[in-house]
From TrEMBL:
The lineage of its organism: Bacteria, Pseudomonadati, Pseudomonadota, Alphaproteobacteria, Rhodobacterales. Pfam families: Ribosomal_L25p, Ribosomal_TL5_C. It comes from the Bacteria. SUPFAM superfamilies: Ribosomal protein L25-like. Part of the 50S ribosomal subunit; part of the 5S rRNA/L5/L18/L25 subcomplex. Contacts the 5S rRNA. Binds to the 5S rRNA independently of L5 and L18. The gene is rplY. The keyword Signal does not apply. Keywords: Ribonucleoprotein, Ribosomal protein, RNA-binding, rRNA-binding. Residues 105-188 form the Large ribosomal subunit protein bL25 beta domain. This is Large ribosomal subunit protein bL25.
């Protein structure tokens, strides 16, 4: 399914430069700039508390936003930089890049796992160890998947699940060429201890 594009509400900012940016901050706003798509850069400002909430929610830099500025057409943007106060670690400036609907962009997409009950390895007490809860993928701005799904059906203890094992949506591909691991099913601690004891016994017998 396509990912719903969340709104990012901003205001047009009059003037540029340090003076205008300081004025925006005094008014409880975070100054920013929108650039790209062959158009002139546009100064904006975003309510501080609203932006801080979105930043603390996570994945801000890997989210496609629908930028809404009063009196202007909505535009899809992605954040390319957030400057922060070095002492308080609070946002002081934001850089946003405009995107076309057919623009290809790298985003981190959440991984979900299904059919836990159909995995023999988990039934035997194995543990699902998630190596990559998110995977960086190349996607089209107009059709971003909400998540990718890993089917655990038939998975045994010791199995590793690689990116090539996952059916990706049409037009979506990983940014990394190699067949990297997303998760594995580890043996329960009791079984690992038993295996270690058997291995030690075998080694002693050989000696």
């Amino acid at each position: 399914m396509a990912k719903e594009i969340p709104d990012l509400v901003a205001e047009a900012r009059a003037g540029t430069g340090k003076g205008a940016a300081r004025q925006a901050r005094r008014e409880g706003k975070v100054p920013g700039i929108v650039y790209g798509d062959g158009k002139e850069p546009a100064p904006i400002q975003i309510e501080f508390n609203s932006l801080l909430t979105k930043l603390r929610a996570g994945r801000f830099m890997s989210t496609l936003w629908n930028l809404k500025v009063d009196g202007q057409d909505d535009v899809r943007v992605i954040c390319r930089g957030v400057q922060r106060d070095v002492v308080k670690d609070l946002p002081t400036h934001i850089d946003l890049m405009r995107l076309h609907r057919n623009t290809r962009v790298n985003l981190f997409i959440h991984v979900t796992f299904e059919n836990h009950e159909k995995a023999p390895g988990l039934k035997r007490g194995g543990t699902l160890v998630v190596v990559r809860p998110e995977v960086e993928l190349v996607v089209t701005a107009s059709d971003i998947p909400d998540h990718i799904t890993v089917d655990l059906t038939g998975r045994e203890i010791g199995d590793s699940i690689h990116i090539n094992d996952v059916v990706l949506p049409n037009g979506v591909k990983p940014t990394i060429d190699r067949n990297f691991v997303i998760a594995n099913i580890a043996a329960p601690s009791g079984l690992r201890s038993s295996d270690n004891e058997e291995a030690s016994a075998e080694a002693a017998a050989e000696e």
